[in-house]
C-alpha cells in the first residue's frame, strides 16, 4: 500500500454510497432484500465494506441512497451505523427514493440518485464527494484516492482494477495515456481497450468516483436537463467529462488494504450465486486474501449481543467440531461437523448432521442426520432431519436453485414447497 501523505482531505469529503440495486443475478437471495443488505463473512452485510472503508479512511459524513426492498438494509444501518455524532461534524443520512423531485419519479439511475439529494448534500457542505457502489467486497483507503485527485488537477478520478482484457467485457472500461488520463470510457465493450505497454490487460471501473462537490453538482444539473440521458455515472456523466474535461484513473493497487504484503489485492463483485459462495469460502483459507481479523482496518457492523459459539458431544460419530470454518456467536454445533463452511449468527446443527462447503445464513436450524454439501442456506431456514443435498445433481435441481458450478441455494419457500 502506498504511504499516506498527512493531509486530511477525508475530513472535507462526503462518501455517498449507491445501495439501491436488487442484484437480480443472486436470484432468490435478493427476493426479500437489496444486494447491499445480503449477509457476508459470518457477521457482516455487503454494504458494511464500503461504509467501513469510508470510516477507516477518515470520512465522517456519509449518505446512503436506497431503493429496492430497502427495509432490511435500513434496519441494519440504523442498528450498526448510529454512532455518528453531529456535534463532531459527523453525519449519516439514509436517503430512500422518496419522489422528492416529482411524484412520478423514483431514482432513475446512479447519477439521479445523487441529483435528487443535492440539497441534503449541500447541508453537509463537503468540498469533495466520494461516490461508491454499495455492493462490492474489498478494503481501500479513499484518502489516497483523494490525494491523487487533488494532485492531478482532475475533474473526476475513477477507481479502476487491472483485469485480463477479455474479462473486462462486463465492466465500464477505460483507455488511458501514459499519465493515467482517461482518453475513452465505454460501458461493457465487446473488444475492451488494453493498457499502454500491457495490451493483454484492461482497466475496469470499480464504480468509485471522486469529484469536487460544486463541479459534480454542475454535471448532475446539466445531465438532468439533457434529453435521452440514462442519468447514469458510467453511461453518461463520466463519458461526458472524458470528452470535455479531465478524467484520471486511480488504480486499486495504489490504495488497497492487503491482508499481507505478499498477498494480491482483493476485490470481488459477489453478483452471482457462485461468486458469492466462493468469496465467502475464501475466508476459510489458512491465510485468507481478505483479512477480517485486522484491527487496523476493521469491518464495522451490527454488534449483536449473543452467547459464544458452543460445541457439544464427544462420541464416535457424534462429535461437535469444525474444520477450516468460521463459526459465529450464538451457534450450537451439537454432535455435528462443519467443514470449510461459514455459520452465521444463531445457526443450530443437530446431532449426526454435517455441512461441507456451506454458507449458512443467520438463525438456520439443520436437522439431525442432514448432509449438506456446497450449499447456500438463506436466513431462518429449517432443514428437515435426514435431508441430503449436494450428492445427486438431478434431485437437487428439482428441489432447489442449483448454480452452474453445482452450488444449491435453499430458501424457506423452497422448503415449504417440499412439504406441500
Number of contiguous helices: 10
Characterize the largest beta sheet: strand count, sense, and whether it forms a barrel: 9 strands, mixed
Query: How helix-rich are the residues, as a percent range?
Result: 10-25%
User: Average pLDDT across residues?
Assistant: 93
Q: Rg to the nearest angstrom?
A: 23 Å
Please tell me what the overall shape is. Answer: globular
| Class of secondary structure makeup | alpha/beta
Give unreliable regions as ranges.
none
- Through-space gap between termini: 55 Å
- DSSP strand count: 29
Report the sheet-strand fraction. Answer: 25-35%
Protein name: Glucose-1-phosphate adenylyltransferase
Organism: Novosphingobium aquae
Family: Belongs to the bacterial/plant glucose-1-phosphate adenylyltransferase family.
Site (Could play a key role in the communication between the regulatory and the substrate sites): 67, 106
Supply the key terms.
10 helices, 420 residues, alpha/beta, nine-stranded mixed beta sheet
Describe what this molecule looks like in 3D.
This protein is α/β, with parallel strands linked by helices. The chain has ten helices and 29 strands. The strands form six sheets. Strands 1, 4, 5, 6, 8, 9, 10, 11 and 12 form a nine-stranded mixed beta sheet that branches. Strands 17, 18, 20, 21, 23, 25, 27, 28 and 29 form a nine-stranded mixed beta sheet that branches. It has a five-stranded parallel beta sheet with strand order 14-19-22-24-26, with no helix packed on it. The mean pLDDT is 93. InterPro entries: ADP-Glc_PPase (IPR011831), ADP_Glu_pyroP_CS (IPR005836), GlgC_bac (IPR023049), GlmU/GlgC-like_hexapep (IPR056818), NTP_transferase_dom (IPR005835), Nucleotide-diphossugar_trans (IPR029044), Trimer_LpxA-like_sf (IPR011004). Its EC number is 2.7.7.27. Belongs to the bacterial/plant glucose-1-phosphate adenylyltransferase family. This is Glucose-1-phosphate adenylyltransferase.
Amino acid at each position: 500500500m502506498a504511504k499516506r501523505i498527512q493531509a486530511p482531505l477525508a475530513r472535507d469529503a462526503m462518501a455517498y454510497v449507491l445501495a439501491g440495486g436488487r442484484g437480480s443475478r443472486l436470484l432468490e437471495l435478493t427476493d426479500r432484500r437489496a444486494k447491499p443488505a445480503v449477509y457476508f463473512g459470518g457477521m457482516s452485510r455487503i454494504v458494511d465494506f464500503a461504509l467501513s472503508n469510508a470510516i477507516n479512511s477518515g470520512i465522517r459524513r456519509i449518505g446512503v441512497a436506497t431503493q429496492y426492498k430497502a427495509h432490511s438494509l435500513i434496519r441494519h444501518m440504523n442498528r450498526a451505523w448510529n454512532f455518528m455524532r453531529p456535534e463532531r461534524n459527523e453525519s449519516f443520512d439514509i436517503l430512500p427514493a422518496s419522489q422528492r423531485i416529482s411524484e412520478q419519479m423514483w431514482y432513475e439511475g446512479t447519477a439521479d440518485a445523487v441529483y435528487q439529494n443535492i440539497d441534503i448534500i449541500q447541508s453537509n457542505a463537503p468540498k469533495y464527494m466520494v461516490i461508491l457502489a454499495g455492493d462490492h467486497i474489498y478494503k481501500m483507503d479513499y484518502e489516497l484516492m483523494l490525494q491523487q485527485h487533488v494532485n492531478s488537477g482532475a475533474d473526476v478520478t475513477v477507481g479502476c482494477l487491472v483485469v485480463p482484457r477479455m474479462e473486462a467485457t462486463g465492466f465500464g472500461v477505460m483507455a488511458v495515456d501514459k499519465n493515467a488520463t482517461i482518453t475513452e470510457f465505454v460501458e461493457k465493450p465487446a473488444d475492451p481497450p488494453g493498457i499502454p505497454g500491457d495490451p493483454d490487460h484492461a482497466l475496469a471501473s470499480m464504480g468509485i468516483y471522486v469529484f469536487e462537490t460544486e463541479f459534480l453538482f454542475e454535471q448532475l444539473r446539466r445531465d438532468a436537463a439533457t434529453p435521452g440521458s440514462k442519468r447514469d455515472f458510467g453511461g453518461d456523466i463520466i463519458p461526458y467529462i472524458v470528452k470535455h474535461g479531465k478524467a484520471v484513473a486511480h488504480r486499486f493497487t495504489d490504495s488497497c488494504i492487503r491482508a499481507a504484503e505478499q498477498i494480491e489485492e482483493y476485490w470481488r463483485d459477489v453478483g452471482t450465486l457462485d461468486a458469492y459462495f466462493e468469496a465467502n469460502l475464501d475466508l476459510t483459507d489458512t491465510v485468507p486474501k481478505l483479512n477480517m481479523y485486522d484491527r487496523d482496518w476493521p469491518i464495522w457492523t451490527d454488534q449483536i449481543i449473543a452467547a459464544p459459539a458452543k460445541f457439544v458431544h464427544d462420541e464416535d460419530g457424534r462429535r461437535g467440531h469444525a474444520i477450516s470454518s468460521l463459526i459465529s456467536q450464538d451457534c450450537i454445533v451439537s454432535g455435528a461437523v462443519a467443514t470449510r463452511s461459514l455459520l452465521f449468527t444463531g445457526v443450530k446443527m443437530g446431532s449426526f448432521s454435517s455441512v461441507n462447503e456451506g454458507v449458512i445464513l443467520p438463525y438456520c436450524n439443520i436437522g439431525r442426520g442432514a448432509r449438506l454439501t456446497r450449499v447456500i442456506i438463506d436466513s431462518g431456514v429449517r432443514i428437515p432431519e435426514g435431508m441430503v443435498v449436494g450428492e445427486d445433481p438431478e434431485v437437487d435441481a428439482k428441489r432447489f436453485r442449483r448454480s452452474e458450478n453445482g452450488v444449491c441455494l435453499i430458501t424457506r419457500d423452497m422448503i415449504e414447497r417440499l412439504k406441500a
